[in-house]
Write a structure and sequence with these properties.
two-stranded antiparallel sheet, 5 helices, 11 strands, Ku70, Chain: A, Domain 2, 23% helix, alpha+beta, 7-stranded mixed beta barrel
Length: 295
């Protein structure tokens, strides 16, 4: 398991679930390093002043946001952190929805959540309650000074946090030249549809993630193995060290507050239901949640 990258708490109502965040995915492709072919020295990078071409130290770098008139607004790290004082160490659940309502295009990066600080019971309480209701949580979380929308998904014994793209990050389909929707409008013949449906039926089967592998990486690795066996290797001495990881904090566990949370949320929930008027939105679903568990 990789190192923890964030510590904080899941919050729903007044209940806090202390957790540690771990990356759930990893890069498994071929990692090509840049080398100087004349000396086999590593080729690194430098932070340089684009006007002078001179190298600049990290302490002399500030963050700026360019404005329409070309000027920049300069923001310090403390100012950026102060913009989200209540969110930097929490995964704040704002609502629960059916998984089928989240479009595939919105899904981004998955993370595992592990209970810490005697939070196992309330972690399990949240997980089992979500499974029973067949819902996922929609939450906000701040990582690396950036706010993310995220889906909190119960998966087996774990709670998985999957960051979600903001709606404004998804391009509208009207930017593309697509065939008209509908079989008639697209000019499809019944015989063509029947054959295509039969082909799809023949190719349909249960999902098995292990059945799919990266063929390119396997081919390159086979070539590397062959060259190693033939003694075709070069000695390279590393010259640069990787930057150290950021530290992380913790949040005090505030469990056993479900009753107070329910009392606080009832007026808001009724108003929300009246405002929504029973409307529902669902297309391009990411995944269907499993049904309620059998007793």
């Amino acid at each position: 398991m990789p190192r923890v990258i964030w510590k904080g708490a899941i919050t729903f109502g007044l209940v806090h679930v202390p957790v540690a965040l771990y990356p759930a995915s990893r890069e498994v492709g071929i990692d090509f390093d840049w080398l100087d072919k004349r000396s086999m020295d590593p080729v690194g990078y430098k932070r340089v002043n684009k006007r002078t071409g001179k190298e600049i130290q990290g302490d002399d770098i500030v963050k700026g946001i360019k404005q329409d008139d070309g000027d920049y607004v300069i923001l310090g790290e403390d100012e950026i952190k102060a913009a989200y004082p209540k969110s930097t160490q929490t995964i704040e659940i704002e609502s629960f929805v059916k998984a089928s309502e989240i479009a595939f295009t919105l899904l981004e990066t998955p993370y595992y959540l592990e209970p810490i600080g005697k939070g196992e019971k309330v972690y399990a309480l949240l997980r089992e309650s979500m499974l029973e209701a067949g819902v996922i949580g929609i939450a906000r979380v701040v990582m690396h000074t950036k706010e993310h929308l995220a889906a909190l998904v119960p998966t087996g014994a774990a709670l998985v946090l999957n960051t979600i793209r903001w709606a404004s990050e998804i391009r509208a389909l009207d930017e593309l030249k697509l065939p008209a929707a509908g079989r008639t409008a697209a000019g499809l013949k019944p015989a063509e549809l029947k054959m295509a449906e039969q082909l799809i039926s023949d190719m349909t089967g249960p999902w098995d993630a292990q059945a799919y592998t990266d063929k390119f990486s396997a081919a390159v690795q086979a070539l590397v193995t062959k060259k190693v066996a033939a003694g075709e290797t070069e000695t390279v001495t590393p010259l640069e060290e990787r930057p150290s990881e950021m530290g992380s904090g913790n949040v005090v566990d505030l469990t056993e507050l479900l009753a107070a949370s329910l009392a606080r949320s009832k007026p808001r929930s009724k108003a929300a239901r009246r405002e929504k008027g029973g409307k529902s939105t669902s297309q391009n679903s990411a995944a269907e949640m499993p049904g309620k568990k059998k007793a």
